[in-house]
Structures are given as structure tokens and as C-alpha cells.
Amino acid sequence: MAAAEAALLRKKATLLREAMRRSEAVREQAVASVGGRMAAVDAAVRPAQERTRNACILHDNVARSLQAVQEIVRQFDLVREAEPVISTGPSIGISAYIETVDKLRGAKDFFTTKIRCKAGDDVLRRVNELLPKAAVVLENEFSRLLSKCSKPVELELLFNFVPSHSSADDPLNPVALPTLVDSRYMPLLSKLVQKSVELGRHNQVLKVYRDIRSSTLELTLKQLGVEYVTVEEVETVQAENLSAKVDQWIQCLRIAVILLNSDHIREGVNSFLLVAEANKSEQGFMCCPCLKCKNEKDYSCSRDIKSHLLRFGFMSSYNVWTKHGEEGVMMEDGDEEEDNDDQYRSMFSECDDTAMDDNEEEGGEEQASDDPVDDDLRRAISDARRDCGTDKERLQFDKMLEDHHKLLYPGCEDGQRKLGSILELLKWKAEVGVTDSGFEKLMIILKKLFPRNNELPVTYEAKKLVCPLGLDVRRYMHALMTVSSTAVRSTRI
Questions:
Q1: ∠ at Cα 272 (266, 277), nearest 5°?
Q2: Cβ atoms of 465 and 419 closer than 8 Å
Q3: Where in this chain does the record put each Transposase-associated domain (predicted)?
Q4: What is the Cα–Cα distance from 378 to 370, expressed in whole angstroms?
Q5: How far apart are CA 57 and CA 69, in angstroms?
Q6: What is the reported pTM?
Q7: For position 450, what pLDDT does the model report?
């Protein structure tokens, strides 16, 4: 029983092994068949795949070529559209013209760095012909626009931009500068300069700017009165015109002095205003010692006086502030500014009376004295020199006597003396009541009318000659009138 079962099991095992061997053989045949078929399919599909890949590559090449051609055509169109614009100029507007120039520069860069083709060489050659023309047009437009907005600065505007504070370095008070070019034109001018420089016209644009701005500056200086004049022109020009030119020159020089020495000038003006404020009149007014007012106008506000002093300048001969609180002060240069017609009127009247009295008294002594004229002269000079306390005063008095003997002009037939003529003019001024400015103009006219090299001075020089010591005006006027009267008697004798 057991043997039968074992034999059966062996038989079944043998059958199973046989079945497995056949199954393995079938599997191998199937694998071989499938492998062969797959190889055949792969061999059949590979050419199709190659053709497909080639077709894709071709498609990409065509697409890139079309894109490149489109860019080239677009650059061709830009150059074609820009050519008439460059030829006709900025008639369509300067901004559109600048955009056209930018397009041409873009086309040049495109054909220079990106694309190389025969047609591109032709276009590049044409662009190189158009760009220099465009650069010249931009340069001319820059010159025209800069000339249009570059106007000479008026004198009044320059005065308004003079620093209004004591220190130009103060960050809290920045110095305002005049506007030389209108801000509306600055963006366009900047763009024109930038494009011209990009086109290689840097030197030309710089020359245009230098020429236009220098000519504008020259016109500004001419408006200020700064112009070249020869000695012959000064001698032939009329006194009124020359005076006006001199005033303008002084104003121009004053601007430069104020700008260069602002701190020192304003400190001096502020010091003067402190003295003037402390010595106001009872009504609260102060005299203005500027070259325009000359102490003839009063102001209640020191700010107005400060503005006048900075604008017109301080009277150079007003060294002692007699109208602003100073009294009994000797001037260093012997020049006195105070112009009081009442003082001169009473002074001349008193001197005339005294001189007449002296003449009457001395008239009786003429017969008894051998030389009364010399006695009078010696006595007058001795009295005057006795009052001179210092050597400087004596030298100044001797200078006054020298002016007394000096002829008014060479070859003066009537024998008019320098000092005597000045005394007569000052006496007339005091009697008539002529202002300082009017008297000064008269002196200028008289100096022009008299022969050349005459000794006639200007107004304040005349006062300096009359009272060189700055002391006791009546005493010296008496001495001078005495000297003059004795000189007259000497001519009669």
C-alpha cells in the first residue's frame, strides 16, 4: 500500500517536472518571438522617430529665422521711417526727433553687434550717414534753445541776490543765486547735451555752451556798465553821460566787493546801525549816509538804511558820524562830511563882518605903517597857526595856505586863486541853499568848462580845503577871509 502510494507520487512528480520543462520551453519560445517582433517594430519605428526629430528641428529653425527676419525687417522699417525725419529736421517736435535719433542708434547697435548680413551692411552704411546729420541738428537746436533762454541778468536782480545775512557760510541762511537759465528748459537742454555727447559731439557742444554763455555774460557786464573805454573816449564823452557810466561802474564794483567781503562789510554796517539806533532824533528818525541819500533823507527803520548802505554804498568821506551822535571828533584825513547850510551861511556872514571891521581898523594904520599888508598877513597866519596843536595840523594849515597862493588853472589872466574861488562857491552855495548833490554836479560841470589841469576840486574836497583841521570852522574862515582881504588890498596898493 505504501509502495503503491510512493510509486504514484513519483509518477506525479515526473509528470510535473515534464510539464514544467515544456512550460519553460514555451516561455523561452514566446520570449524569443516577442523579442524578435520588438526588434522588428523598433527597426520599423526608428526612421519615423528620426524624421520626426528632424522635422521638429526644422520647425524650430524656421521659427527662429522668421523671428530674426522680422527683427531685421523692423529695423529696416525704422531706418526707412527715420530717414525723412532726419532729413527735414525737428519740424515734428524736438522730443520726437530725439526719439528718432534713438531709433537710429538702436539700429546701428543691432546691425553692429547682433546681426551680420549683406543687407544689414547697406542699412548700417545709411545709418552712419544719417547720424552725423542728426548730431548737427541737435547741436543747432541746443544752440538755439540756449540762446533763447540765456538772457543778461538785470542790475536790479543782481542786487536782490546779494547775500542778506552776515555770513555766507551759515547753513541756516543759504545764499540765493540768480537763475541764469529758466528751469522749464533744463530737462530738454540736458537731454540735448546727453544725446549730442552720445553721438560724439562733446567738444562741439562745449564750444557752443562756452560761446553763448560768455556772450551773455558780456552783455550782463555791459548792462552793469563794465565796458572798455579809452582815454580819448572818456575825454570826449559828455559829463552827464560819463557820470552815469561811472555810477554804473561803481554799482558793479560794489556787487563784487559785497560778495567777496560780505562778512566784513555787514559787520561794519551793523556797528554803524547800533550807533545810529542809539542816537535817533526825538521823532525817531535817522539820516541815511548812503551815496544816494547823503544824509539828506531820514528813515525810522534801520532796515531801510541797511538796505541802502549795502546797495548804494557808504559815503567814503563821512568818517565822523556827526549826524549820528558823534561830537567834537577830529577826522583822520581832515575831511568833514557834515553839510549844514545854516552853519556855512552864518560862518561866511560873520567872517565878512569881521574882515570888514579889520579893514576899517587897518585902514587908519596904512599911513602909519610901512607895510600894513604884510602885517595883516603875518598876524592872520600867526593866529591860525597858534591854534594848531599838533604838527599834523600845522602841515595841513600850510597846505591850505599853499592852495591859497595856487592859481585856479595855468595861465589864469585874472589871477583867481584855488582857495579863494572855492570860498566864493561855498559862500554862494550857503546863500542860495543848493543841496550837496546839486553843488557837486555844478562842480563837475565847472571842472569840465575850465581849461585842462585846473585845480577846481569836487564838493567834499572843497570842504576839506576850507577846513583841513576839522576844528573851529569860524576861526579858520576868519583867517582865510582876512588873508583874502589883505591880498585884495595888496593889489590895490
A1: 120
A2: yes
A3: 262-326
A4: 14
A5: 18
A6: 0.39
A7: 79
**Above pLDDT 90, what percent of the chain?**
0
- Residue linked to cell 567777496: 260
From the CA atom positions of the chain, what is the Rg in Å?
A: 53
What's the gap between Cα 7 and its chain centre? 133
Average pLDDT rounded to a whole number, residues 262-287: 80
Q: What is the rounded distance in angstroms from the CA atom of residue 255 to the CA atom of residue 56?
A: 82
Report the distance separating Cα 307 and Cα 195, nearest Å: 46
pLDDT(410) > 80? no
| CA 211 to centroid of chain Cα atoms | 17
CA 379 remoteness from chain centre: 61
- What does the pLDDT look like over 28-44, one tens digit per residue? 888 888 888 888 888 88
**Residue ranges in 199-319 assigned as alpha helix (H):** 202-223, 231-236, 239-260, 262-278, 302-312
301, amino acid identity: C
* Rounded distance between C-alpha atoms, residue 57 and residue 61, angstroms: 6
> Which percentage of the chain shows pLDDT scores above 70?
61
Beta bridge partners of residue 287, listed in sequence order = 298
Tell me how far apart the alpha carbons of residues 381 and 491 are, in angstroms, rounded to a whole number.
19
Count of other CB atoms within 10 angstroms of residue 28: 10
pLDDT at position 45? 84
Question: What one-character-per-residue DSSP string does 179-192 give?
Answer: -SS-GGGHHHHHHH
pLDDT at 361 over 80: no
Using 50, 70 and 90 to split pLDDT, how confident is the model at 278? confident
Instruction: Write down the domain spans for the chain.
Output: 2-149, 231-324, 341-492
CB 311 within 8 A of CB 290: yes
Instruction: Measure CA of the first residue to CA of the last residue in the chain; give whole Å.
Output: 205
Per-residue model confidence as pLDDT tens digits over 158-211: 666 655 544 445 555 555 667 777 788 888 888 888 888 888 888 888 898 888
How many CB atoms lie under 10 A from the CB of residue 373? 19
Q: Is 139:196 a contact under the CB 8 Å cutoff?
A: yes
- 72 touches 117 (CB < 8 A): yes
The set of residues, in sequence order, having a beta carbon less than 8 Å from that of 122 and lying 6+ positions away, is: none
Residue 299 bridge partners (DSSP) = 286
- 483 band by pLDDT with thresholds 50, 70 and 90: very low
